[in-house]
Amino acid sequence: MMKEIPGPPTEAQIEDGRLLFAGECEFFFGSQKIDQLPPVGRPEVAFAGRSNVGKSSIINALTGRRTLARASSEPGRTKQLNFFNLADRLSLVDMPGYGFAKAAKSVKEDWQDMMFAYLRGRTTLERVILLLDARIELKASDKDVMELLDRAAVVFQIVLTKCDQVKPKALAAKISEVEALALKHAAAYPRIIATSSETGFGIEDLRAEIARFAVPLQTSGEGQSGS
Ligand SMILES: Nc1nc2c(ncn2[C@@H]2O[C@H](COP(=O)(O)OP(=O)(O)O)[C@@H](O)[C@H]2O)c(=O)[nH]1
Ligand SMILES: [Mg+2]
Question: Which residue range is the domain that position 193 belongs to?
Fold first, then answer.
């Protein structure tokens, strides 16, 4: 069956995203082993991508903070799953970057085993945001991770990073290429978002996509509650 590509978020969804990400965001847990995950609670959205894809930058752009993700990726914290509490409504999970050219095979296998165990077993994981650098070709490791996500049956959404460094025509071609790829993967959400953490391009769109998974805001009880 052909997947339809959903349209962009509505104004109301953009506002939901803005509100969510205007809230407090703080690191609350680092997991180095699969049996040391925080207890399940809030819905989770995890970020994955090759090292240097711009993962820390996009988490910082989303949350409007300069140092949030960097602080968590200092030596010792880089090889763990880092959990952030966003406004008590959602957990953002920063996954270790993959695709180190120099990493030994055993390191890669450890990464895969841990990620697969997390992805497959985490009942509160709503979506993986898979980051791809818009300027470069897809690597074998990106393809491996998409297959891993298919096998784990976790819905993933491809987000292109560093789009400020790609000319409009090349970006359009890249988006088409990645859309076609998404259609081939059972677990891929078909809508691609092009972003730049430098200029803020696409960031409010991504906030809106992520906000769909957050625990709804508590209504005060005084006004009328929405739908
Ligand atoms: N031009 C541009 N550079 C970016 C963007 N996002 C990240 N970078 C750069 O890419 C490099 C890696 O970014 P970082 O967020 O640390 O990547 P990570 O390893 O995936 O966490 C840094 O030099 C960033 O300044 C972007 O949107 N545009
Ligand atoms: Mg980083």
Answer: 11-216
